[in-house]
User: Fold this.
Amino acid sequence: HSECGHCLPLGWRGGYKSNRHVNVSALRPIYFVGTTSATAAAGSSFTNNGVGDPSFALNLAFSKDALIYTTGVAVTAPVTDTSNGFSTGDTLVDWTSRVGVRIGRLVPFGRLDIGNTVPDTPVFFLPYTAQGFNARLEGGANFKLTDIFSAGASGYGVLPSGEQHIYSRMVTGSNSRMSMRPV
Assistant:
C-alpha cells in the first residue's frame, strides 16, 4: 500500500515595515498534516496537527535601477514539543540573500540560503522539520502579467554538510526523528 503526505499550514503572521529598506516580522505556524493512502476507502485524513515553533525575521531590501537585492535573517525559537515533528528542540537560524535584475516585466533571480535548517517556502511545505548545516541555491525568473498578478518558475538544490537530523511531521512519537550524513 502506498502513502503520500500533505501539509496544510495556517498561522499568525505580523510585521512592521519601517521604511522601504527594513522590515521585521514574526510567524507562529499551525500545521495540519495527513496521509493519503491508495488502499484507504476514505482517501485521506489528518494524522497530526499542532502549533509549530515561532520565528522572527529581519529583512533588508535595496534596489538601484534594474538591480534588486534582498537579504534577511530568520530565527526560530524552540518552544514546541519535538515528538510531533514541528520542532527540533534547538534554535534554528537561516540567512537568505537574493539578487534579481528587472528587464521590463521579466525578473531573473538567484538566491542563496545558509543555515542550520531547511525552511518551508511560501510555495512548498515540507513533511519534516530539519536540523543540520546546509546551503540552498535557487535560480529562476518571475514575469509580471499585470499590476497584481505574476508567474514564475525556478529550480533549487539543497547542499547538506555534516550530520542532519530530520523530524517527521507524518510520524509522531519516538520514531519521528532520524539522523543521517550526506555521502
